[in-house]
Amino acid sequence: MSDGLNELTACKTDSEILRRYRQKLPVIVEKIIANSSDPSCFSHVDYEPLRSSSSVGNLIAKFREVLFPGYFSREKIDPVNLKYSIGQMISDLYDALSDYITHVMRHDCFRFGQDCLECGEKGNQTALAAMEAIPDLRQLLATDVRAVFNGDPAAQSHDEIIFSYPGIFATMVHRVAHKLFELGVPLLPRIMSEHAHGLTGIDIHPGARIGESFVIDHGTGVVIGETTHIGKSVRIYQGVTLGALSLPRDAVDRLRGEKRHPTIEDDVIVYSGATILGGETTIGARSVIGGNVWITESVPPDTRVFMETPKLIYK
User: Fold this and answer.
1) Burial code of 58-85, b = ≥16 C-beta within 10 A, e = fewer?
2) pLDDT of res. 16
3) Which of 59, 81, 179, 234 is 20 to 30 A from residue 186's alpha carbon, by CA?
4) SS3 306
């Protein structure tokens, strides 16, 4: 009996402790509400809320279904139902994409007090333009898949590459995000790129221009900046940075949109850990950049750049 009484007393004590602490929460709530109205802090309390990252993931999944029919489809696709299946996928993708584009355009109108863009009309027009680019995007991605297969003895099939290579996934997302970037869609291309970055460790800004037959081998830690230009048949390995030189604070606004990242010409190989910086830096065609080098000046075509062999010390 005494044990039961002790348990009851303990429960009442715990309840009292919880009450004393919880009654302090309304004060914290009021402070957060006041803080949310402080323009020096960042809040997004608006009548046009931002979409969640999961909805971007769903949108990418729909693109993936269409770009690689039969690989990631929820239903079986065969020659008999191909027309129906593709039609349904395109319809679903168009509805999701036009809705998302309209949403981010309307968000900018509310957020930044822009003139009315007729967001619904513009969103549907832009989504249709993106859909019209899908056949060309499929052709471009096919060159990427073949380039990976032709350069990787570990790849057993094209199917394996499409299903499992993070470089192909990141490149696929970039191809789509870049098209949306070119079409002037705000916010969405960058969110898509960061979604792929989170899954693969490959960070490609949607503004980067990348030619056909592009290969990212392994991929973890790759960074490709906004104004990077990459030619045809370029292969880069893990840990490569194609970035910008550090800027003084007063130059940031002036250089927005200017060429700040390097140009990599056709048939270049960049090995793991290499860092290539600067908008005036060009790596000439057919050059090979060795691992762990640091480059801030242009390299002529047909050049090999590598580190001197380090001296190992054994103790």
Assistant:
1) ebbebbbbbbbeeeebeeebeeeeeeeb
2) 82
3) 234
4) coil
29-41 tens-digit pLDDT = 888 888 877 777 7
Which pair of tokens denotes residue 60? 């990418």
Contact 194, 185 (CB under 8 A): no
**Between vectors from CA 270 to CA 217 and to CA 175, what angle results, nearest 5°?**
55
Crossing angle of helices 166-182 and 134-151, in 10° steps, is: 150
**Would you list the DSSP string of 196-265?**
HHHHHS-EE-TT-EE-SS-EEES-TT-EE-TT-EE-SS-EEETT-EEE-----GGGTTTTTTS--S-EE-
Tell me if 127 sits within 8 A of 94, measured CB to CB. Answer: yes
Element (H, E) at 271: none
Helix (H, G, I), strand (E, B) or coil at 269: strand
| Spatial separation of the C-alpha atoms in residues 223 and 242, rounded to whole Å | 6
The model's pTM is 0.84
Q: For residue range 29-80, what is the model confidence (pLDDT) as tens digits? A: 888 888 877 777 766 666 556 665 568 999 999 999 999 998 998 788 888 8
When pLDDT is averaged across residues 167-183 and rounded to a whole number, the result is: 98
Is the torsion defined by CA of 202, 104, 52, 62 positive or negative?
A: negative
Amino acid, res. 106: R
Using an 8 Å Cβ cutoff, are 222 and 216 in contact? Answer: yes
